Amino acid sequence: MAPGAARVSLLIPTHALPPLSYSIPESLREKVRIGTAVVAPLSGRHRLGIVVGAEVDSARAREEVLSVVPDLSLQPELVEVCTRIHEGAAVPLPAVLRAALPPGVETGRYRILEPSPGWPWEVDATVTRAALERTLQPAGMRAAEAEKHIILAPSAPQPATVEWAVIRAAAEPDLARAPRQRDLFMTLKEHGGEVMTSTLLSETGASRSSLRELVRRGAARLVRRQGPAPLQATLGDHVVQERPAPFSRTARRAVKSAGPFLWRTKGREEDAAVVAIVTATLEEGRQALVLAPEVGSVERLVELLRRALEEGHTIAPYHSGLGRGRAAVHGAARDGSVDVVVGTRTAALLGLARPGSICVVDEPNGAHRAEPGHEGLPVHVRDVALERARSQRVAVFFLSPFPSLRIYAPEVRRRERIRELPARRGGPWPAVRIVDMRGSGATFSSTLERACRRCVEGGGKTGVVLKRLGYATAVACSRCGAMKICPNCDLPLVSHGRDGPLACTRCGYRQEPGPCAKCGSTRVRQTGLGVERARAELSDLLGTRVGLITAEERDHIDAPVVVGTPPRILDGEWDAVILPDADAFLAGSGIDVGERSFRLFYGAAAVARKLLLIQTHVPEHYALRAGVSGDYEAFAAAELPRLRELGYPPFAHAASLTFEGSEAALSGAVESHLRPALEAGVEMSGPFLLGRTGETTAWRVLLRAKRRPAVARAATLAARISARTRGLEVRVDVDPEEV
């Protein structure tokens, strides 16, 4: 780091505050570099920030860095990745940098440097912000910061404390007449004389009262200690015995050469590919990061890798369910004491001491990108992984039998230098029946009924896939045709049960059935096929019990016929898979409706052992035909020209801007400031009204351009304009999966 000054991004998540210049005191110049976490003043208050650049000339720096925080510092290469994500996705740089820090960073504590007379604290005491404000009052605390009597002392979150049972020295109690206590004591000895209380009680099946009695006898004591980091040792069971040699050879070559790779693994081959990639990475003495879309997938892969890898390595999960344990994994990855981390999207910016490979499992899955209100960045992990491949020179693998067209398109592969690894020949494929429902008013065809009966009579299991929850997907007035609409989201309300309440699938709004709000008629009709209606009608039709499986409900899942939503049905294997309303998927909204439909049909065929049956009014649809035959190349050949003609990603780029506020504030920001300032080549559509909640109105503006940087700059401009407009907020989403 050159002496003089540093550009520091203070971790205040706003576009309105760019990195600021601070001079570096002589005592800190050897410690400050790109990525160093520092404490710096802003308007008299101390803030945590990350150094993102160097300045030789310190003339612009009016204040100086106060301290460094080594435990929160980032690698320079990771700062470069964060900066590129900020520039390409129009996400505030502080928000991206914070995503690379341990979750739950403590920024509410201060260290006493020079106590004033009458203060109840001594030098170097650590005090919370709340305690300081109670004693000094807000004005006094601000003065103490400005005069450097106190300094912000940020830190990574400390592990939670848990209770341990510990044998007292030389304790050998007479427990002949207390079998429960004897079991507890012997188990304690087997664990070396100390073990977590929860583990002890779980292994022995004893009650807490028995443990308390053992403590009363003086045989043991209870203490509180920091909980262990969720690191696990590999077992070397080699459970993936069927792993073919080509997987290992391919993975070794790719890991050695680094860069991004597209690997179209099919079905259970994905597990073998993950094991081969991680094994090749460990052979190079490097760390592997595996990114999975959901917590359940993370836990499954951790258990797989524990048993498949050679002994002597450590592996850890990383997801929100770990609580403070996630911070311990963050530290272990940064200092190199864990070899493999398997995490959700929150691990995409995890710092690694010896980065070797990043593996994105089920690459096109939408869960790899955070939705509004959820933890994580509104950036797909594929984009983060590509940036890390460039900056950190690691091998990045995108695994999926049907990768997203945003990385499969030839133009993208050339630009990003994505190499495609050889795909293996697919396994057995089920028989496929496409039932043309044109001219039929029936919900279930006779072909569907016969297929279900044959499967049931043969002792097989049938999975029925529906898109929507509830009984009916829409409720409309039979007199005037008006639909029951959510007042918040402007979406049709879903009916739960024949006479049950109506609910919005997006915001959860509920209302009881009632007369039409437009004409007052009590005659309403339920339309669309939801899981509850399909279950009820199939049970009547087949005369057998029908199960139900959704994200929130599992009922009679051992039944011969089970109705459910795609993520749950397609997570298992079935003798027959049936899609009675394929058109609900094909007629969906969004620029990627074709891709989503293809993946659904392909996935349904992949989990059907014997039969895939589909009812549709558009039997010749290209996504349907390519999906049921497993022909990804044919689908891509049909879909990519359509996306090019429409100007959708990956051939053009878009930013969705969701504004919330008053109409006057919106008009002033968009029409008076944003539209006139757009650079040439950027088109703006809207504003479009989305809905009203109380006094707040939501609007959407769509920006489009041929080049992503132009869209990102325009979106950043919109965010800065919104930050300066009172009563107006904006949410920016560059290249969203759906528009």
Keywords:
8-stranded mixed beta sheet, Rossmann fold, globular, GIY-YIG endonuclease, 739 residues, alpha/beta
Overall geometric form = globular
Distance between the termini: 43 Å
Q: What is the multimeric organization of the chains shown?
A: single chain
Count of helices?
A: 22
Please give the largest β-sheet. Answer: 8 strands, mixed
Remind me, CATH topology of the domain at 232-421? Rossmann fold
Alpha-carbon Rg, integer? 30 Å
Helix-strand layout with pairing:
Blueprint: E1 5-10, E2 20-23, E3 37-42, E4 45-55, E5 67-68, H1 76-89, H2 93-99, E6 109-112, E7 126-128, H3 129-146, E8 150-152, E9 161-167, H4 179-190, E10 194-196, H5 197-204, H6 208-216, E11 220-226, E12 232-233, H7 245-257, E13 259-263, H8 269-283, E14 287-291, H9 295-308, E15 314-318, H10 325-335, E16 340-343, E17 355-361, H11 381-392, E18 395-399, H12 405-408, H13 410-416, E19 419-421, E20 431-436, H14 446-457, E21 462-465, E22 474-477, E23 494-495, E24 502-503, E25 510-511, E26 524-527, H15 531-542, E27 546-549, E28 554-555, E29 561-564, H16 566-569, E30 574-579, H17 583-586, H18 593-607, E31 608-616, H19 622-629, H20 632-646, E32 653-661, H21 663-677, E33 683-693, E34 696-705, H22 708-724, E35 728-734
Parallel strand pairs: 13-18, 13-19, 14-16, 14-17, 15-16, 17-18, 20-31, 21-29, 21-30, 27-29, 30-31
Antiparallel strand pairs: 1-2, 1-4, 3-4, 3-5, 6-7, 6-8, 9-10, 9-11, 12-15, 22-26, 23-24, 24-25, 27-28, 32-34, 32-35, 33-34
Helix pairs in contact: 1-11, 4-5, 4-6, 7-8, 8-9, 18-19, 19-20, 21-22
